[in-house]
Write a structure and sequence with these properties.
- By secondary structure, the chain is an alpha/beta fold.
- It has a domain of 158 residues: HUPs (Rossmann fold), CATH 3.40.50.
- It contains eleven helices and twelve strands.
- The strands form four sheets. It has a five-stranded parallel β-sheet with strand order 3-2-1-9-10. A three-stranded antiparallel β-sheet has the order 4-5-8.
- Helix 1 crosses helix 10 and helix 6 packs across helix 7.
- 37% of the residues are buried.
- It binds glutamic acid (GLU).
- The site of glutamic acid has 7 residues, from loops.
């Protein structure tokens, strides 16, 4: 899609309106892509039907209000099922996939391997015979088994250089590739789709940094581009007044809520720009000015706390 140019992307899940934390990450992804001469692509991560609130159009309209633009039409992840199935088939053919019948409770109850990170899959279903697998399937019916990656022996968690976080390491276990309900897991879909869209710059919230080593393992096993060919910037999250990650319960946090409180999209953009050292206090900036001032070296490296809407309306 972007031969030779490279592309960045923003990949929201349509599970509700974007809050200011999401909007800030989107602005950053756009600034990183546009200031490095890349295309900027949009992908709607709509695989999880149960969490799809039909909010994709409103999300895109909000991003436009902030001044973002993107190349081509947004890509719907649900249309890329063929690519996901071929990647899974490729891993299966290499003997790298196994069925897992464990419930969350089973995993918590199982003794964990020495030195395994908390919550890591203990490998219960990894080495089952055909008969054991059949019995396990029958035992959980009508629930269906999930599919997990058999991380090959000798493959350890890759570390990578993040544009903001520096060198990042992490742990990997035999993670899920397809859930028991048949939905392809985030880690597999994101790797396959980023590669097919020609993405070579991934900017997203730092809550996803710990998923990146898993994604790099998949990139390598599927022979897709991986670091240093693909660059990563995991950006600090926005916190609510309670100190926890910003969420809808923190009050007026979406453009729509804020508009109702008298806070315009221009004001939201400007406050976000200020939080990124791209605007002075009270200054109104356009998205274009943000691009002109953008300098990754000046970006804050720690989380930012969102002030309440009343403060924004009056300050
Ligand atoms: N869809 C994910 C989210 O909304 C982001 C995935 C990614 O950027 O890799 O949190």
């Amino acid at each position: 899609m972007s031969a030779g140019v490279g592309a960045g992307r923003y990949a929201p899940s349509p599970s509700g309106d974007l809050h200011v934390g999401n909007l800030r990450t989107a602005l950053l992804a756009w600034c990183f892509a546009r200031t490095s001469g890349r295309q900027f692509l949009m992908r709607i991560e709509d695989l999880d039907r149960a969490r799809d609130a039909g909010s994709a159009d409103r999300q895109l309209a909000d991003l436009e209000q902030l001044g973002l633009d993107w190349d081509g039409d947004p890509v719907l992840q649900s249309r890329l099922g063929g690519d996901h199935a071929s990647a899974l088939a490729q891993l299966e053919a290499a003997g790298l996939v196994y069925e897992c019948t464990c419930s969350r409770a089973d995993i918590l109850a199982a003794p964990s391997a020495p030195h395994a990170p908390p919550g890591a899959y203990p490998g219960t279903c990894r080495d089952r015979s055909d008969t054991e697998r059949e019995l396990a399937r029958e035992r959980i019916a009508p629930r269906r088994p999930a599919l997990r990656l058999r991380v090959p022996d000798g493959v350890s968690a890759p570390s990578f250089d993040d544009l903001l976080m520096g060198r990042v390491g992490g742990a990997i276990d035999d993670f899920v590739l397809r859930r028991g309900d048949g939905v392809v897991a985030y880690n597999l879909a994101v790797v396959v789709d980023d590669a097919s869209m020609g993405i070579d710059q991934i900017v997203r919230g730092d809550d996803l940094a710990s998923s990146t080593p898993r994604q790099i393992v998949l990139q390598r096993l599927l022979k897709l581009p991986s670091p240093p060919e693909v660059e990563y910037a995991h950006v600090p999250l926005v916190l609510g007044q309670s100190g926890a990650r910003l969420a809808k319960r923190d009050g007026a946090v979406t453009l729509n809520d804020l508009r109702a409180e008298g806070v315009t999209a221009d004001r939201v953009r400007s406050v976000l720009a200020q939080s990124l050292n791209l605007a002075g206090a009270g200054e109104v900036v356009t998205a274009h000015q943000m691009l002109q001032r953008f300098d990754p070296a000046q970006l804050p490296r720690s989380a930012w706390t969102w002030a309440s809407a009343e403060n924004l309306a009056t300050s």
